[in-house]
Write a structure and sequence with these properties.
Blueprint: H1 2-21, H2 37-40, E1 42-53, E2 56-59, E3 71-76, E4 79-85, E5 97-102, E6 110-114, E7 119-127, E8 132-137, E9 144-152
Antiparallel strand pairs: 1-2, 1-3, 1-9, 3-4, 4-5, 5-6, 6-7, 7-8, 8-9
Length: 153
């Protein structure tokens, strides 16, 4: 008899929990989407540059002075506009100047650099978008990958 009461109570409790959890709930408005262009604009310097080939990695920035490198991303009217690279210390395979944009302005995962003659698309991942940007690129077909972490100045 105790077992039946226990089973009945447990079944009743499960029914109540199931009923409550299946009720329709109202959610508020999502609000404005966060601006991705404004925080991305500015001057970036190299925080680290790592070369990876197969399973071997080498941190170039530990043995080479890359302080002369800077990437400047400009915007006009809240939209991406021009970029400028001030040195060729980092083998980015893009022109020293041109226009830039994101692949998707709401959820960017790539930066597109266009020098007027062609476009170069780089994988980019915002790391706390207000100050760090990680860019991965493969300048050749030999399996060498560079990982560049840029810090906003």
């Amino acid at each position: 008899m105790k077992k039946i009461k226990y089973t009945f109570r447990l079944s009743f409790l499960a029914l109540v929990v199931l009923t409550i959890s299946c009720e329709e709930q109202e959610f508020g408005e999502l609000g404005e989407s966060r601006d991705k262009i404004g925080p991305a604009t500015g001057t970036y310097a190299v925080q680290s540059l790592t070369l990876t080939e197969g399973v071997s990695s080498f941190v170039i920035s530990e043995v080479t002075n890359l302080s002369g490198f800077s990437l400047i991303l400009n915007s006009t009217g809240g939209l991406p506009s021009t970029y400028e690279i001030n040195t060729d210390l980092v083998p980015l395979n893009i022109s020293a100047s041109g226009n830039w944009d994101f692949d998707n302005r709401e959820r960017p995962s790539q930066i597109i650099f266009n020098d007027g003659e062609g476009s170069v698309v780089l994988q980019a991942m915002p790391l706390g978008f207000d100050y760090l940007l990680k860019v991965e690129f493969e300048p050749s077909c030999y399996g060498v990958i560079y990982e560049l972490v840029l810090e906003k100045q």
